């Protein structure tokens, strides 16, 4: 069965097609969903910051239209990407996740980072170009690691002050220059909870569009130390038994996948599938 969503660089000068609309308020939607006639959106008379062709959904060309500022459109509403992520059967999440990353990149690279001159889209390539500096800016991907630490039938979970009330999750952090993902994992675990780990194993990866991370998922075993939460970063961290877990992250996240996978293996349940 062919993929419903396929990324592609489409020419904004082409006519027709469908579009998703984004602004500072999130993505536009109505009772029919998040895909709108591209011509209809462009005919609203609302100032458009930029437009990028981003791919095909069910073989139909899809564009991202980024509005400038806050916008009111009759019979429509705006919603953030995280809210769409929490809808487990929402079929357009991968499309919106990609659109969000392209939109963030395009906003941040409208002007050259070297001389400040306005950049232009490179035809047929996902790049913004400054002809004065001969400089191309490509979409940024920030590598980070996320790890589930286990101790037999117990898993280590922590909560950040930024989390939803009572929710716990795995540890994560961005790789620094010169670090491997494994080096990053060991450092982050020491910094965030003061523990040592061993038997590090790569599990899976997930593109995380908040705003442009590549999450490299690992499993590691506890090797020593007492939990000492990092001030201002970790509000609480503790061991939980696999059959007595707190509220967990959204089902689409790799954090939830790492947890569910280990729990399934310990309890002899069917293994989950990492959502695309």
TrEMBL record:
Zn(2+) binds at residues 112, 115, 130, 133. InterPro entries: NAD-cap_RNA_hydrolase_NudC (IPR050241), NADH_PPase-like_N (IPR015375), NudC-like_C (IPR049734), NUDIX_hydrolase-like_dom_sf (IPR015797), NUDIX_hydrolase_CS (IPR020084), NUDIX_hydrolase_dom (IPR000086), RNA_Hydrolase_NudC (IPR022925), Znr_NADH_PPase (IPR015376). Its EC number is 3.6.1.-, 3.6.1.22. Substrate binds at residues 82, 125, 138, 206-213, 255. One of its GO terms (molecular function) is hydrolase activity. SUPFAM superfamilies: Nudix (SSF55811). The keyword Metal-binding applies. It catalyses: a 5'-end NAD(+)-phospho-ribonucleoside in mRNA + H2O = a 5'-end phospho-adenosine-phospho-ribonucleoside in mRNA + beta-nicotinamide D-ribonucleotide + 2 H(+); NAD(+) + H2O = beta-nicotinamide D-ribonucleotide + AMP + 2 H(+); NADH + H2O = reduced beta-nicotinamide D-ribonucleotide + AMP + 2 H(+). A motif (Nudix box) lies at residues 173-194. Divalent metal cations. Mg(2+) or Mn(2+). Binds 1 zinc ion per subunit. Keywords: Hydrolase, Magnesium, Manganese, Metal-binding, NAD, Zinc. A divalent metal cation 1 binds at residues 172, 192, 233. Its cofactor is Mg(2+); Mn(2+); Zn(2+). Homodimer. mRNA decapping enzyme that specifically removes the nicotinamide adenine dinucleotide (NAD) cap from a subset of mRNAs by hydrolyzing the diphosphate linkage to produce nicotinamide mononucleotide (NMN) and 5' monophosphate mRNA. The NAD-cap is present at the 5'-end of some mRNAs and stabilizes RNA against 5'-processing. Has preference for mRNAs with a 5'-end purine. Catalyzes the hydrolysis of a broad range of dinucleotide pyrophosphates. HAMAP family: Nudix_NudC. This is NAD-capped RNA hydrolase NudC.
């Amino acid at each position: 069965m062919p993929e419903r969503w396929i990324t592609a660089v489409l020419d904004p000068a082409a006519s027709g097609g469908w579009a998703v609309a984004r602004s500072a308020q999130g993505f536009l939607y109505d009772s029919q969903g998040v895909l709108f006639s591209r011509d209809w959106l462009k005919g609203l008379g609302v100032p458009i910051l930029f437009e990028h062709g981003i791919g095909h959904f069910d073989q139909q060309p899809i564009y991202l239209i980024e509005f400038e500022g806050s916008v009111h459109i009759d019979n429509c509403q705006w919603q953030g990407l995280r809210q769409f992520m929490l809808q487990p059967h929402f079929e357009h999440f991968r499309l919106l996740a990609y659109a969000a990353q392209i939109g963030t990149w395009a906003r941040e690279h409208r002007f050259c980072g070297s001389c400040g001159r306005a950049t232009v889209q490179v035809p047929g390539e996902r790049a913004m170009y400054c002809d004065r500096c001969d400089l191309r800016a490509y979409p940024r991907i920030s590598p980070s690691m996320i790890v589930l630490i286990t101790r037999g039938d117990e898993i280590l979970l922590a909560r950040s002050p930024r989390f939803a009330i009572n929710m716990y999750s795995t540890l994560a952090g961005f790789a620094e220059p010169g670090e491997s993902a494994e080096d990053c994992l060991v450092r982050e675990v020491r910094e965030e909870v003061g523990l040592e780990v061993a038997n590090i194993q790569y599990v899976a990866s997930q593109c995380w569009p908040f705003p442009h991370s590549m999450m490299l998922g690992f499993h590691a075993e506890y090797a020593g130390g007492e939990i000492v939460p990092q001030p201002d970063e970790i509000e609480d961290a503790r061991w939980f038994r696999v059959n007595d877990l707190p509220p967990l992250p959204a089902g689409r996240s790799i954090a939830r996948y790492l947890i569910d996978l280990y729990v399934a293996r310990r309890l002899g349940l069917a293994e989950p599938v990492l959502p695309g």
